[in-house]
Inverse folding.
């Protein structure tokens, strides 16, 4: 079978042999080998423009998750490609230990201007996991150099995802996802319950709860003894947990708790950074400044691999003279990635995409809330263009049991067939590029609406 090829991209390759070679030689992440072969929920992409991508068969999809929560400025931005090409032709690489490069300095300066508060010193790396790994090491070494070597524990939260490397995986709270084979975690990684009001672990209700879930972090720090705790790590809005927007008191109080106990606050803005939630950084919604802020994804909108741990001066002050940071990464501050990020940030600002995320995001949220007329839709929530629709199997009888796996799989297959790429568990995640139009938002809702109806009929929910 010869499939239609997208013009100009794979015109000389037939899609069937691409699929064969891809299935044989490309191991999809977090997937069994040969997952590509089934084509049920997998596709081979060829090109993209704005919020739309095309596969090698010429079929179009709205990119409902902006790749993996990151193509913030949208696909097909020639200007970023040109900036990368110009930098590669001038100087592609300079070591991050003895030297740095012009775009690395320009980017670090831009980040210092954009980031909340006095977050002004950037440690560059290649992605989100490395950013978190770096933040953990910086926090621990910071305390060591300040004469507190016992401060090594890191408090994370259940349900959070901070990355796939050992430290990042350990402070994450998604055991089944990050380590189903039970290899050991990093020593000193502790976990508390998240501010997931729709499913509160403490069986309480906001606001009567008094936001107990954040006080529980202080209790844990006190129980462990503050002199043993290096940092708390949290996403301002946890995507992996199911688009969990915390109550307004949560982050400001977490900031106070960390200050009270000399514990550093690491805010992981790998997904929420660079406009995703309608502000440049999500922590700005609550006027909170992290001690270390991790970023990646939207920093370059995925045009080049890059991440960073942004630090406040008080965090880096102990690393002076002969007290170096013991941590280095070959690709930290890669010149071409920095050039891509600068061009990306320029587009975000020039086109007002952060405001667009706020406005079109609010519109999309409103439209998605209309889906509550479906018997399977339990909750719809989010901020900016970081949204989630939580699906239940027993809402009609007052329950909150997640939708059954076979129905989820059927929904996932239908969505992709109807032209919406996203991630579906018992929560449908939506995080399209920030250039989304209202018409595209309407299309997302239409596809979701009709697919839900079909699944509900098929599985007897209506
Ligand atoms: C909040 C958060 N932190 C860190 C990471 C890890 O980033 P990467 O996959 O770039 O290593 C992710 C990835 O999705 C993430 O969502």
């Amino acid at each position: 079978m010869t499939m239609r090829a997208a013009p100009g991209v794979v015109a000389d390759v037939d899609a069937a042999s691409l699929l064969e070679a891809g299935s044989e030689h490309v191991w999809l992440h977090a997937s069994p080998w040969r997952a590509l072969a089934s084509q049920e929920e997998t596709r081979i992409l060829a090109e993209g423009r704005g919020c739309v991508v095309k596969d090698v068969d010429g079929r179009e999809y709205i990119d409902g998750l902006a790749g993996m929560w990151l193509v913030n400025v949208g696909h097909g931005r020639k200007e970023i490609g040109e900036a990368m090409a110009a930098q590669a032709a001038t100087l592609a690489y300079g070591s991050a230990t003895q030297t740095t490069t012009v775009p690395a300095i320009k980017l670090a300066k831009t980040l210092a201007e954009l980031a909340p508060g006095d977050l002004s010193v950037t440690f560059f790396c290649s992605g989100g996991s490395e950013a978190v790994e770096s933040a953990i090491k910086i926090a621990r070494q910071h305390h060591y150099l300040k004469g507190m070597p016992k401060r090594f524990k890191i408090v994370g939260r259940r349900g959070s995802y901070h990355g796939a490397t050992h430290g990042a995986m350990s402070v994450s709270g998604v055991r089944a996802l990050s380590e189903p084979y039970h290899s050991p975690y990093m020593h000193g990684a502790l976990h508390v319950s998240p501010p997931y009001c729709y499913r509160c672990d403490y069986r309480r209700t906001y606001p009567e709860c008094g936001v107990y879930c954040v006080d529980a972090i202080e209790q844990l720090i006190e129980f462990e003894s503050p002199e043993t705790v290096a940092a708390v790590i949290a996403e301002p809005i946890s995507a992996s947990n199911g688009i969990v927007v915390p109550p307004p008191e949560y982050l400001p109080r977490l900031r106070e708790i960390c200050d009270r106990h000399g514990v550093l606050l690491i805010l992981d803005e790998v997904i929420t950074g660079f406009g995703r939630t309608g502000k440049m950084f999500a922590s700005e919604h609550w006027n909170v400044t992290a001690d270390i802020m991790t970023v990646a994804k939207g920093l370059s909108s995925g045009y080049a691999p890059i991440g960073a741990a942004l630090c406040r001066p008080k965090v880096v002050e102990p690393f002076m003279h002969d007290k170096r940071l013991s941590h280095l990464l070959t690709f930290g501050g890669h010149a071409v990635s920095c050039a891509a990020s600068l061009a990306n940030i320029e587009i975000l600002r020039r086109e007002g995409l952060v405001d667009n995320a706020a406005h079109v995001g609010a519109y999309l949220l409103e439209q998605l809330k209309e889906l509550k007329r479906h018997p399977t839709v339990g909750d719809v929530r989010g901020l900016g263009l970081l949204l989630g629709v939580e699906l239940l199997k027993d809402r009609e009888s007052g329950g909150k049991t997640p939708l059954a796996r076979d129905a989820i799989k059927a929904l996932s297959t239908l969505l992709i067939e109807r032209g919406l790429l996203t991630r579906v568990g018992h929560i449908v995640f939506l995080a399209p590029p920030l250039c989304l139009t209202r018409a595209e938002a309407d299309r997302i809702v239409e596809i979701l609406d009709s697919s839900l109806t079909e699944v509900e009929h098929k599985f007897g929910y209506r």
Remarks:
- The pocket of pyridoxal-5'-phosphate is lined by residues 127-129, 132, 161-164, 235, 239, 268, 270-271, 296 (CB under 6 Å).
